[in-house]
Write a structure and sequence with these properties.
About 30% of the residues lie in helices and about 25% in strands. It is built from 11 helices and 13 strands. The strands form 4 sheets. It has a 4-stranded mixed beta sheet with strand order 1-8-9-10. A hairpin with a 2-residue loop joins strand 8 and strand 9. The chain starts with 5 loop residues before the first strand and ends with a helix. About 50% of the residues are buried.
Length: about 400
């Protein structure tokens, strides 16, 4: 039996979190190559620590001369990301940090499995399982704990960057424990907010006074009550932030990037990977499908799983689960999905328009639950497949 009364917790991290600095740089590298060539191959990983950023992995362009030219731009790309995030600390500054570029050409053995040739269709870039999820508990069809944890940090980043709250630093984490009654979110039992600050004299109480108005305006009315427990900068001072305080690595925040633990995860990270990598593109497709199933009224909650084999174009399996909320048999949803969307790697990229430099913006505050954008960003959040799904069941 599905539980209806419970408390569920999710966390988010800001764009200045060490791991997110690395995700941002990796996705900026990806965008740069896709801007040059839509079929570019990129698998970029970034490591960051005190005064140092290291970028490695594989890249590929059809024109080797252009590939060599772009290798010389990697350092500037990394510095621009660090500057935009806002790091000007003595031991992590966009002007003085040491950037090491260890990117190299894509493995020919991987390429031969992925590339189309002769009568062979383009194959998946790796084996693996990918999950998508949607629930009608928020307007964005996302789980409330992760959606509002993101929203708090995005709001604090806005007031930090526009100069309203210049004392706030780039590094921050939020966490919400959301109370559910009859399966719907109704309030927050506890809230954790840790944010870097640039004035060493500020106490935890001072920081709460700064951030509380923005938190209250972000959360739904009535969710914060006298019973809500607040933990703002619970360890005290938080002045040393970002990679100077803790090392960062691309792909280490996969639960923050997706559903905050409210749904399964296949284990593959997103940032720095071009859309031939089904870790990324098929996870986007699965979210797109789950969201449209819920938008079509087939279920209040839906999980979609896809699976792939390296070098094989079609998914090995399609699985749908509606968690006891379905108006349609999950097997019928699976058949409908197979009819309305080409789930080969190229089919996904074509349907969602993924061969564009749209990835840097996904690197913080979640890959899902965002508004689709005019230039194709967050295309997997569109609701344009709902009617086709309804007709297919």
């Amino acid at each position: 039996m599905t539980r209806t009364n419970y408390t569920f917790t999710s966390e988010s991290v800001s764009e200045g979190h060490p791991d997110k600095v690395c995700d941002r740089i990796s996705d900026a590298v990806l965008d740069a190559f896709l801007g040059e060539e839509p079929e570019a191959r990129v698998a970029a990983e970034t490591f960051a620590t005190t005064n140092r950023v290291v970028i490695g992995g594989e890249v590929g362009l059809s024109d080797q001369d252009k590939l060599h030219d772009y290798m010389g731009k990697i350092e500037d790309i990394a510095r621009a990301c660090i500057k935009d995030i806002g790091y000007e600390q003595d031991k992590f500054h966009h002007e003085t940090v040491e950037v090491t570029n260890l990117l190299h050409e894509q493995s020919a053995h991987i390429a031969q499995g992925v590339n189309a040739s002769g009568e062979k269709d383009e194959g998946a870039g790796d084996q693996g399982i990918m999950f998508g999820f949607a629930t009608n508990e928020t307007d964005a069809l996302m789980p409330a704990p992760i959606q509002f944890s993101h929203a708090i940090l995005r709001r604090l980043a806005e007031v930090r960057k526009n100069g309203t709250e210049p004392v706030l630093g780039p590094d921050a984490k939020s966490q919400l424990s959301v109370v559910y009654e009859n399966g719907k979110p109704v309030g927050v039992s506890s809230l954790v907010l840790s944010t870097q600050h640039l004035d060493e004299s500020l106490t935890s109480a001072d920081i709460r006074a700064i951030v509380e108005p923005y938190i209250r305006e972000t959360l739904p009315e009535g969710w914060l009550t006298e019973a809500t427990q607040w933990h703002v900068n619970p360890t005290g001072k938080f002045v040393i932030g970002g990679p100077d305080g803790d090392a960062g690595l691309t792909g280490r925040k996969i639960i923050v990037d997706t559903y905050g633990g409210a749904a399964p995860h296949g284990g593959g990270a997103f940032s720095g990977k071009d859309p031939t990598k089904v870790d990324r593109s098929a996870a986007y497709a699965a979210r797109y499908l789950a969201k449209n199933v819920v938008a079509a009224g087939m279920a209040e909650k839906c999980t979609i799983q896809l699976s792939y084999a390296i070098g094989v174009s079609k998914p090995l399996s399609i699985y749908a689960e509606t968690h006891g909320t379905g108006e349609v048999d999950p097997a019928a949803i699976e058949r409908a999905i197979d009819q309305v969307m080409d789930l080969t790697p190229r089919g996904i990229r074509s349907h969602l328009g993924l061969n564009k430099p749209i990835y840097q913006r996904t690197a913080a505050y979640g890959h899902f639950g965002r508004e689709p954008e005019a230039d194709g960003g967050f295309s997997w959040e569109r609701l344009d497949l709902a009617d086709a799904l309804k007709k297919a069941v």
